[in-house]
Amino acid sequence: MNHRAFSKGADDLAHRRQLAYERIAEDAHLTGDLTDAPAHMLLSWAEAQVRRLVAATKTLDEETAWQQLDPQLRDLRRQMRAAAKVAADTDNPTASLRQQLLPPRPTEKEDDKT
Questions:
Q1: What pLDDT score was predicted for residue 13?
Q2: Structural domain contains residue 88
Q3: What domain range is 49 assigned to?
Q4: Is residue 113 part of a domain?
Q5: What pTM was estimated for this model as a whole?
């Protein structure tokens, strides 16, 4: 196995992930209406989404990867702006973001079904 080739591929993917996340994190309009805690929560959620999106480009060359990622990152920014706007207009922005972005927790009745 060529470890140098693996290392370069892993480095490329890490660099791609960093660039993609910076495109999100550096856009102050995405979190501008939120206080620190909900803004951090939104950015943490976005980072997880970026990791997932970039991981799906693992086997692609840079040009093809960015052709795939660019529209996905635009959609992610739109989703973030919408979630932030709704959350900022509530009494509890963190709870609003949690409800909008995170999967619902199973209820006790759903737990009993398994």
A1: 93
A2: yes
A3: 3-100
A4: no
A5: 0.80
